[in-house]
Amino acid sequence: MQVFVTGATGFVGANLVRLLLKQGYQVRVLVRPESLRTNLQDLDVEIVTGDLLDPGVVKHLRGCQVLFHVAAHYSLWRTERDQLYRNNVLGTRNILKAARDASIERTVYTSSVAAIGVPDSGAIANETYQSSIEKLIGAYKQSKYLAEQEAFHAISIGQDIVIVNPSTPIGPWDLKPTPTGDMILRFLRRQMPFYLNTGLNLIHVRDVAQGHLLALEKGKTGERYILGNRNLTLQEILAQLSEITGLPEPRSGLPAWIPLTAAWIDECVLAPLGKTPSVPLAGVKMAKQKMFYDASKAVQDLGLPQTDVRVALREAVDWFIHHDYVPNWQG
């Protein structure tokens, strides 16, 4: 079977491509001209150069039976709102239409728990929960919600699409890195003296890749599946990183108003004056919430694996160190 993958140069996409090749699939990937191809180096894939928004992208999909639409633009900066909408919403609309025109038999669309949101009550959310778009913090989350609506619209007109909503993947091939990977790096570089009282649902990135393949094989059209594993506070995550590396964990929590104030000044006052902001306001606002999710539907219906997140954290640490993200490492 020949499959088409968008976002293959990214974190989840790179792990998915490796799994697909291991399972014997023929893999064709869409890569933008300016994208780094490090994550695809030495892989037996067919690379086509193009863009999600290209009206002619349909020609690249012809001959494939399956589309994995993993690509997305991730940013928490207010200045990138338009780019987020173009890439995530209009790009999803265009690639799904191209898949219909190319007679793709089944599509697995990579959404995110960002599109689901967090209950005001602080409860653990599952696939049945949905925040209103007004309550989704930041342009990125809103763009993922709108992109998911594009997928639901395509489903309503007869397209075979299964939606997966990864939580917070961790592990190898986090090239950019992701915000969670950046948090791990700041810990390794001893740049995290304090922590916020927040929480995340962590999952090994290879389990996320496996979840995509399981969604292709077992997922129901029109359903969405949270690909997650364990809910942990940031303090618990840092404690595990301390055990893995031997580095001391931060002992003091930081009141949310301090980074909120700093981020607001940074992004809303200094950035318009020409200073490059260092902390996105949306990111700090998100951190005020514990982003906890229930992945039992994917575990029960798809057989989503649940690798110990400590293994994922250790592999992320090892990958970053091996790839020289932590200069002069002496841990």
From TrEMBL:
Keywords: Isomerase
Keyword Isomerase: yes
An annotated GO cellular component: cytoplasm
Domain NAD-dependent epimerase/dehydratase: 3-228
GO molecular function: aldehyde dehydrogenase (NAD+) activity; isomerase activity
Pfam families per the UniProt record, alphabetical: Epimerase
InterPro entries hit by this protein: Epimerase_deHydtase, Hopanoid-assoc_sugar_epimerase, NAD(P)-bd_dom_sf, NAD(P)-dependent_oxidoreduct
Superkingdom of the source species: Bacteria
Transferase keyword on record: no
Protein name per the record: 3 beta-hydroxysteroid dehydrogenase/Delta 5-->4-isomerase
Taxonomic placement: Bacteria, Bacillati, Cyanobacteriota, Cyanophyceae, Acaryochloridales
